[in-house]
Amino acid sequence: MARKIPxxxxxxxxxxxxxxxxxxxxxxxxxIVAPVAGTTRDALARPVSWRGVSFQLFDTGGLYGExxxxxxxxxxxxxxxxxxxxxxxxxxxxxxxxxxxxxxxIARELRETGLPVLLAINKTDDKRSQSSAxxxxxxxxxxxxxxxxxxxxxxxxxxxxxxxxxxxKGIGLSPGVDEPCVQAxxxxxxxxxx
Length: 194
Hints:
- By secondary structure, the protein is an alpha/beta fold.
- It has a single domain (about 5-194), classed as P-loop containing nucleotide triphosphate hydrolases (Rossmann fold, 3-Layer(aba) Sandwich).
- The protein has six helices and six strands.
- A six-stranded mixed sheet has the order 2-3-1-4-5-6, sandwiched between helices.
- Helix 1 crosses helix 6.
């Protein structure tokens, strides 16, 4: 009988950078990235392996937030299904915008799942986010990881935390070598930081 590959779901409001982070980690431009809210409508999944731990990474459409898109309710339902089947959740928030009611609502719903939740504050490379980053600590998640999905900073730390949570649950351990798509994406990030 084949082992179930654990799933890690990126969740958050529209335009917080979930698709950018998905592309950064997987090293592929599979998710469409645009400044228009509601661009991501399908939940994408790609296999990832990091430090001997394998998992499926899911990119979901934005949960909640203003949308005139007639498909928005279906996107939310699809995201909620992915969350219900997850092993670890990553709540991605926008450090530039600071804490908004949509973040609080999603945080509450993720907490109610009883699953491990990692809080990643995106866009922390922008000076505007430095003053608002502290607001997110009141959501009560630990750890809080500051990242820049676009530039790759903090992504190693986020992956380490994901791997640690999966190892603690005793799932996702893989005897194989890290997937080349993950290494390619993060090697590009490391090059940009040099």
